[in-house]
Amino acid sequence: MKWITRERPKIDRIACPWLIKNFVDSNAEFIYVPKEQVFEKAKELSAIPYDIPGAEYSHYADECTFDYIIRKHQLTDPALLHLAVIVRAADTDQFDLAKQSAGLWAISAGLSYNYKDDFEMLEIGMKIYDALYSWAKYVQEERHTWNPELLK
Asked: What positions does the domain ChrB C-terminal occupy (predicted)?
């Protein structure tokens, strides 16, 4: 299936393709276009619009599109649910929801600044979400405390 959204992706428009590819449709194809072309191109290309007002796959109340995909596709993996809070917090400027969200926003904004090609940014972003998911699933309880006193 093809999925289409606004160009110059940040949080949700990178997180959602990662979620879709890994848990909904491994053959998904993603398209970025100027925001005023999303719905026209969606019809033309038989693509599902996402993360844009007026699309089914979008924000609802204080939740983001990542949350909607989890609910719509009945995904229940606890690591995904934890990741959803981080994505929501970063994407909706609610950093108090998850301490990791400010870092995710910073990384996303930096990617957007450093990479002008949306597909190159998506490729790199997919690896970042792979790592964040692995943290949420396997090592979120691990702590990194470097204490010079312990090195003596």
From this structure: 3-135
Q: Are 136 and 79 in contact (CB under 8 A)?
A: yes
Distance between CA 133 and CA 98 in Å, rounded? Answer: 14
- The torsion angles phi and psi of 31, rounded to 5 degrees, stand at -130, 135
> Regarding beta strands 2-6 and 47-49, do their DSSP bridges make them parallel or antiparallel, or are they unpaired?
parallel
Instruction: Pinpoint the alpha helices (H) of the chain.
Output: 11-23, 38-45, 65-72, 78-91, 101-114, 118-134
144 pLDDT above the threshold of 80: no
pTM for this entry: 0.91
Give the start-to-end residue ranges of the domains of the chain. 2-137
pLDDT of residue 140: 83
Tell me the three-class secondary structure of 92-124, residue by residue: CCCHHHCCCHHHHHHHHHHHHHHCCCHHHHHHH
Q: What is the pLDDT of residues 10-42, one digit of tens each?
A: 999 999 999 999 999 999 999 999 999 999 999
3-state class of 83 per DSSP?
helix
